[in-house]
Amino acid sequence: MGQWPIGVFTSIDAGLGVHLDVAKDLGIPSVQIHAPHAGTRNAAAAEAFLKRCSDAGITITCVFCGFEGESYADIPTTARTVGLVPEATRAERLKEAKEIADFTRLLGCDTVGMHIGFVPDKSSASYAGLLEGTRDLLDHLARNGQKMHLETGQETAEHLLEFIHDVQRPNLFINFDPANMILYGTGDPIDALKKVGKYVRSIHCKDAKWAAEGQRGKSWGSEVALGDGDVGMETYLKTLKDLGYTGPLTIEREIPHDPTQQKKDIGLAQSLLTGLRAKLGMG
Ligand code: MG
Predict the structure, then answer these.
(1) What beta strand segments (E) does the chain contain?
(2) Which end of the chain is more exposed for a tag (fewer CB within 10 A), N or C?
(3) CATH fold for domain 6-279
């Protein structure tokens, strides 16, 4: 793949991504995938999925963890249920994340993605426990020759940097999602990208509009088709170029209830990104 190959976030049988056929039909050469359910995480399933990808000329660039019991219904529910932060489910999710990493290796992929959750305050006991669990997982990934990319948005750029610094492992990086910074109200996406840039190893191309003033960080902004929101796609890509980012441009469009519109929006996003990539001299 050359610089900035277009990608799309897909699912096998779990999560919000689109079906692999969408990537195939649109001629999109790379995908991130949401990890399948436990029953589908075996060698035979990996081989079958890899065959479908290679037949369609598609490379898998990252496999995202997702866990039973997670809900993005609203911001407080997300904080309570998502990732490794909730203590009641941390041990079992760490175990499952290692299983997902092993399945990712079967797919020939060296990158595991994760929404780790709302990283707690540094002074809390929960923070120390989260550091310990994250190190344990990263050491497992290292034995697989893998790295982990943390999805952005659930904390500020500064807090994410502090967490990565405190984890003290060389295989922890960032999957930057500019729309999430807007959706969660955690900061201007371009400023945040500049701050965390040296850790960014993969990205999402997703767009969103801010929640009303006074509601930011309390209720969701709204996810919209790429180019229709407040990210500013040209500025976003220009900033990535300035940072020296050459990896995939992975489109996310999270409207699984409307697959027809979802596919249409992904096709339009592909055109928008292909045009900007040429304009910026990246392909
Ligand atoms: Mg994302």
Answers:
(1) 6-11, 30-34, 59-64, 111-114, 147-151, 172-176, 200-205, 207-209, 222-224, 249-251
(2) N
(3) TIM Barrel (3.20.20)
